[in-house]
Amino acid sequence: MNIHCPFCPGSQDYHLGIQQEGKGVHCWRCGGHTLAQALSRVLNLPEPSVRAIMRGYGANTSQRIRREEAKVSIFPLRMPKPSSSLTAPYKNYLKKRKFDPDKLEQEWGLSQTGPVSLLDGISYSHRILIPIYWNGEIVSFQARDITGKSKLKYLACPKRREKIHHKNILYGKQEKWREEKGLIIVEGVTDVWRLGYHAVATFGIEFKMEQVLQLAKIHDKFFMLFDEEPQAQEQARVLATKLKALGKEVYIEKIKGDPGDMRQEDADYLVKQLMK
User: Fold this and answer.
1) What is the largest CA-CA distance in the chain?
2) 31 lies in the same domain as 92
């Protein structure tokens, strides 16, 4: 079950998933939380009070947030079928978001699903397919809804089909990163599309240590450009601290709104200023 995440201020995008067994919750932006923590936010009650209520219903209140280990899947990577190159409705969606669909299709390998597209019984209908590359090969994908009607804007590749779990790596033009004067760390794929080859995304504001180490391997200078929401800015500070501890030069930059929603000319100017 998905609800609006109470840990992401202003979020109305059903980011928070609650396990049917009630063992925990997870937001694709800010990460894992206990059920008691989530209910405390939703009900506006102190966490001890929530735990007492839960115990009254026989619920286990001592769950720990599960941390996933890095995994390489033995299942073959597949895309939802049927899929095709971008057609007019999908290109129009990107144009409305101030993107050049032909450029994105060529540079980032975008394609689309159809009215009925499935993978492992999961519906990926009416979505833009976004391949995730690592070391020159496709290892996973994300799928972005274009209808505005889905509770989940993004759907990920089923974990068992990922060659490498996307939260253990980064999104962007990996082969270009070392050529840049610095890298701009952003949340999502559309932010990278807007800012170009200088940008690298962590797939949400939650990040894993594997991603921190990958960043440390590829460059020595970074600019943090997460969304302006307090939760995102706090995560930007945490990530900056970890990179600085590894001897990296890190600056936290702020803009109003989402980097992916910037006008292209404004994004180009920002990149030019940062890379001086």
Assistant:
1) 60
2) no
pTM (2 decimals)?
0.76
Cis, bond preceding 48 (omega within 30 deg of 0): no
The residue count of the chain comes to 276
Q: How many helices and strands in the chain, by DSSP H and E?
A: 8, 14
- What's the CA gap between 41 and 118, in Å, rounded? 35
Give the β-pairing of 221-224 and 249-252. Answer: parallel
Dihedral angle of Cα 243, 28, 187, 177, to the nearest 10 degrees: 70
Extract the tokens encoding 216: 């440390």
On whether both 37 and 89 belong to a single domain, the answer is no
Q: What is the pLDDT of residues 59-111, one digit of tens each?
A: 666 555 444 444 555 789 999 999 999 999 999 999 999 999 999 999 999 99
3-state helix, strand, coil in the chain (%, to 5): 35, 20, 40
Pairing between β-strand 2-3 and β-strand 221-224 as defined by DSSP bridges: unpaired
Taking the C-alpha atoms of residue 63 and residue 28, their distance in angstroms, rounded to an integer, is 19
CA atoms within 13 A on the CB side of 145: 11
Q: Which of 56, 73, 94 is the last residue of a domain?
A: 56
Work out the pLDDT band at 2, boundaries 50, 70, 90: low
Q: Give me the sign of the Cα torsion angle 199, 202, 204, 207.
A: negative
Phi, psi (degrees; rounded to nearest 5) at 119:
-150, 120
